[in-house]
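Many introductory courses stop at the sequence. We go one step further.
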Amino acid sequence: MPYQVDTHTHTLASTHAFSTLHDNIAAARRKGILLFATTDHGPDLDDAPHPWHFTNSMLIPRIVNGVAILRGIEANIRDEAGTIDCDDRMWGCLDIVLAGFHDQVFEPQDSVVNTRALINTIRSGRVHVITHPGNPRYPIDIPAVAAAAAECNVALEINNSSFHYSRVGSAPNCLAIARAVRDAGGLVSLGSDAHIAFGIGEFEQSLQILDAADFPAERVLNRSPRALLDFLESHGKPHIAELAGL
């Protein structure tokens, strides 16, 4: 596999998903994934886990059966101000924070409002990756968002699940995003957004987008475990001693 890191996965703690953390670890090991982030939905969604799920994630071992695990969240963007449903206590317990639009929390608006919300989220200093920004239900000013993300060292995700069953019609936006991030000098992140273990590490369609955009591999956050860990440390997250060998 060209990329052995997955930044966006779910467990059945988000009850519209179907696999346990153990299932995801086994699938990652089977597929040669070296590191993945477990990032269940933030608590504002009806079927999301309680905030205690995230503060208690410190119980998750760093390495299981040769697979390294980051403790994370896919938070919900709540408003135009860019606030998210990840409070200070949760933030302090997590390694990586993703955030994106989900219509139960933030209904789709016009491009001006959506863009303002994304840029404010990016500039908040609370988020490392913006999830599925190519969702056609949330039109955005792509060059403006890409420029803000590059300025703030925040990655924009090319979400592989968007090309299958959710967010249909994302492909043209994702290609435009990849090209805009390329030109702005920013980073992209590849997320399987797996809601079942079989999807862990699946990036086929996302990689086709990167190829079409001639996106530089050295600016893909998933290029190595160390690249992702160094990125998180650059955002002030602590060094993880157990993962120093990656």
